[in-house]
Design brief:
There is one protein chain. With 241 residues, this protein is mainly alpha-helical. Helix 2 runs antiparallel to helix 8, helix 3 crosses helix 8 (197-240) and helix 4 (86-118) packs antiparallel against helix 8 (197-240). It has helices spanning 2-7, 10-41, 56-83, 86-118, 126-150, 156-164, 168-178, 197-240.
Amino acid sequence: MVSLHAFANPTRFLKIARPLTPVLFWAGVALIAFGAWAGLTQTPPDYLQGDTVRIMYIHVPTAWLGMGGWSGVALASIAYLVWRHPLAHVAARAIALPGALFAFLCLATGSIWGRPTWGTWWQWDGRLTSMLLLFFVYLGYMALARADEDRGGDGRIPAIYGVAGSVLLPIIRYSVVWWNTLHQGQSIGLTSSSIDASILWPLWFTLGGFTLFFAGIVLMRMRTILASTKVEARMRRMAAA
């Protein structure tokens, strides 16, 4: 508990975040670039989907981070509600925008992939519909957090919303199991995959790269929010003086 409180100190956090942000960001960019190059030029086309399968190298990471982003929002919200650390609320706010962006990219790439595979850009499929709902939940969280900040709230309402929204995550995860759906079932597990290794291997680079890139963006946004809060506090003190 002591170490948790120490890490939640903004000054200590910034000492770690400042040098770590560019490392995560540029390492992520490098892995994404290599994975995309490998996926486009070093892998064979799929025997059924042809070159369309290459969308996987972008679609899978965006789906993972769209869901992973909300997991981060929920965990940070729980930390804020339990321990009342302002930095946890800052983290949730910082995660929301890139999380929403990746959820949108997941929907967009999924639609592009679905057009030649399913013959339609969109289907009210369980996986697609639940992911669309998650995107709207992200938008709702950002609007609620901004409204709470504008009225001088303490952040509890957005935090409760952040925890409640996590109910969508198991629905998205198991939608292909619970409902008859166009979306394919799970292709990649912890110990095995139904995708041939000759096609699969660049995915690990783009998956790791986008994850590092996401983390770098979140740290950047947290630093920006903390700096903005510091400037606003200074301006209030000057106005009061």
